[in-house]
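Hi F.,

I've been meaning to write this up properly since the lab meeting, where we talked about keeping a consistent format for the predictions we share between groups. The idea is simple: the sequence comes first, exactly as it goes in, then the structure tokens exactly as they come out, then a line or two of notes. No screenshots and no reformatting. I'm using this chain as the first example so we have something concrete to point to.
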Amino acid sequence: MRLLICITAITLFSCTKPTNSISNKDIEFKAYVDTYGEALDVGITEQSLIVAANYQGYIVYDINRNNQGDIIAIDSIFNAIDMASDMGDNRAQDITVSQNHELAFITDRYDRIWLYKLNETADQYVDNYLQDCYGGTWLSTAIDDREDHINVFSLVQHVSSEDEEGGSVGDFDAYSTSIVWKRLTNVNSTDILPELDSSPSCEFTYNFNILPRTIDFNNGILAISYGELGVKILKQTENSICLDDDNVMLDNFIPTGDIAADKTICEQEYDENYNPGLSGNYEPFGGFYPYVYSSFDLPGEVDALLVRDSIIFAGLTTSNGCYMSLLGTNGVISDKLSFAQGYSINNLSEDNNILALSAGHDGVLVYKRDGISLNYIGQISTPYSNNVKVDGNNVIISTEDGLYIYLIK
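Output, unedited:
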């Protein structure tokens, strides 16, 4: 059941300040927000903040800002607790937000990707979640946020549809992972069926082993964590393509714009309508070339990823800190910088050239970035830090005890 709760900014900002410490006078504590339990992630727009509050579901806040964009008040809460009564865990764990369409994607790993429109005047979807794809269960979600549509990229694990012999899941090894995606065009405020005109509605791109756990996308680059073996990268294609088994483009493939027809033309071995067929591998525009564009190893297990243009940030476990890798031409890593050694990094965020690293029991580390150079700003001590989000000069930290909001002065 959904519950609408109103709170005033005076009440919020006059709450007793929780125990925390800051190692730099340029970082100012602004507010503590009780999320009734653990906060795992947040998504933010100009006017809205949405929190993945674990078993408390997801919580939506309205934001008031000053002329500099600093958060000065949070006025109201919408709390979707019982997202699905027929699901065992019913959790909200990850948030991805479309800025262009004010649409939040809330991932309940292994169960569903929920949808919520952040514009208060919008009509909410009747079916407020995405259909699964290739029988996989969700691990991680990233989006390509465009003006007239959203490409939703998912890392899924093939565990829920094993065949009778238990050897594989369709064409995939059991417990392997895949990148799959769909294009949503019904993303306007009045649309009530999110996948009514989805095309492609379920597209397979690439199958990996069990190691991948998280993905991130930016500027045509999709980064995939690969455990102790580093990072894999897929490159986006802006054209529909048909490749042979050696990943060479077939010159005689001329896309028509009809995805279903083009897929048949490319992949069909023989058909009376498409004789002789091309026997190729098809990928619609907006997807990815079906091969690993780049890969690189790092000294530790990758637990978090952030892609910004051609820079891949990788947060590592077991006190191995973070690596900033510059992706050059042809997928070659042209430069690499190690920092935050001695810390285990479980999430990263950057905006306004401010980079923040969530470091669990060590709180959050904050840096100022200039290209591939970093200047350390300070450390924020909080309860166990699950995640962090930078928004302008605001730093919003998701912890085991709720949200902490700070300002970089």
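Notes:
Residues 1-19 have pLDDT under 50 and may be disordered.
Helices lie at 9-13, 259-267.

If this format works for you, I'll send the rest the same way.

G.
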